[in-house]
Amino acid sequence: MPTRCGRRKGTKMQQITEQQILALAPNPAAGANGKKISQKGGFVRRERSADDTFYLGECQGSGKSNYITTADFIEPSAPVFRCSCPSRQFPCKHSLALLYEIMAGKTFGECEIPEDILKKREKKMARAQKQEAMGENGEDSAGAEGEGQKTAGASGKKKTSTAGKAARIKKMKKQLEGLELAEKLVRELLEAGLGTMGGTALASYRDLAKQLGDYYLPGPQRLLNRLILEIDAFQKDQEQIHYDNALEVLEKMWALVKKSSVYLQAKLDSGEGGLDADPLYEELGGVWKLSELEALGCCRRDVRLVQISFWVDYDEARKEYIDTGCWVDVKTGEISLTCNYRPVKALKYVKQEDSLFGAVQAGTVQVYPGEGNARIRWEQGAVTEVTGDDLRAVRALAAASLAAEGKAAKNYLKNALAAPVLYRLVSYERIAQIGENLVLVDHEGGNILLGDRPGEERTTERLRLLPRAGLLKDQVLAGGFYYDRTARRLRFWPLSIVTEDGIVRLLY
Description:
- The protein is an alpha+beta fold.
- Helices cover about 35% and strands about 25% of the residues.
- It folds into five domains: about 5-115, no CATH class; about 115-160, no CATH class; about 165-270; about 295-395, CATH 2.40.50; about 395-505, CATH 2.40.50.
- It has helices at about 20-25, 30-40, 95-105, 115-135, 160-190, 200-215, 220-235, 240-270, 280-285, 290-295, 390-395, 400-415, and strands at about 5, 45-50, 55-60, 65-70, 80-85, 110, 145-150, 160, 300-315, 320-330, 335-345, 360-365, 375, 380-385, 420-435, 435-440, 445-450, 475-485, 490-500, 505.
- A six-stranded mixed sheet has the order 1-6-2-3-4-5, covered by helices on one side. Strands 9, 10, 11, 12, 13 and 14 form a six-stranded antiparallel sheet that branches.
- A hairpin with a 4-residue loop joins strand 9 (about 300-315) and strand 10 (about 320-330).
- The radius of gyration is 25 Å and the shape is globular.
- The termini are far apart.
């Protein structure tokens, strides 16, 4: 195999997440074994092509000779794995270990793409072009549709190879099987009550949670893990909040199982194996690539963003830290979120994000499908100072009516699959104290109680400590509507005050 020595600096590698790796694994054990190989330094050689479509690793194994494993990303959504090991699993643990090496940002030398790989690519391309031609002639259009091929029709949607489409359909059928198991569980709990999950029964539910991973359902799997955590906590301290949280998770599981089953079955019935902009894809555990979002038109152009808040949470069910940035679009007033997921087992490889007190000017911002406050990402953006024009624009875009915003929030939060908070900008006449409570009052006389979401930073009390009394009158408040399950009413969680002079953060 021809190679060129040397290290590559400043070039971008394939962007891979652990969720993607586990979704590719034939079973959880293969994923875990691949991770162990990477963590123990099992690779004695790592190389990649100049265009980052081909990766090679030489891995120590149980045989006399080292194993050569490769990953071909010519179709990023459907990588092709090859390995010299005798394993019948596909992809094998060595291929998965190579993905973990890429995810960890390990150093790769540069190599040429082997001739046999290039020939296989040419043959595959020729087959795809033939399938496309057959489709255009009305002979066989089904085999040409899907994801991954570079050839696009008038609609701009990507084409996939027959093999890629078949693999995706196979995966959806497997997901439907797993959803049937999840639906049976939810039905049993709804009929028998959450109390039946206590004691030794939790062990069987933990086993079921592991099984869901075998059905390519990391989303429902995380929900079941979260349900188990809440029930376990309730059994220990009998706090009502844990029981209420468990009911909320169970409700979301039921909605996800029912809606996802309909969604997947409809795609199978139509023969459509490609990606679409349905948020259920991510709810089931799918991981979006920026290129996929842009291909689906899920993006904004020429965007200027100002961060109004930042916080870090730990998700026990996911075993991840989540760095969340709350941003307002200066042109539209729309609030969006950035989420940086840092798995506990990979903290040394994933850099923690931090607050940003400037503005970001980005040519293209990718937008994740879904309602409410969209998750966004961008690859390149220039950081500048927040200007007076920025502040005036944001203040002018704030909502004037708490009544209208509250009604919209209630309608949104009624959806079991909605995020628990709807973030908005609200213009207020004053923040008043009524008894022991702080109340937000708009210029129309409408009002809402301010409060802190359980488990989140207590920002409401910080309003009492503001250095200037003027901050409590005729300003704009950025925060989130949420449903207080204890008080059974809508509340507003304050995050920042936007003045003509700057942004006063209550949460960094």
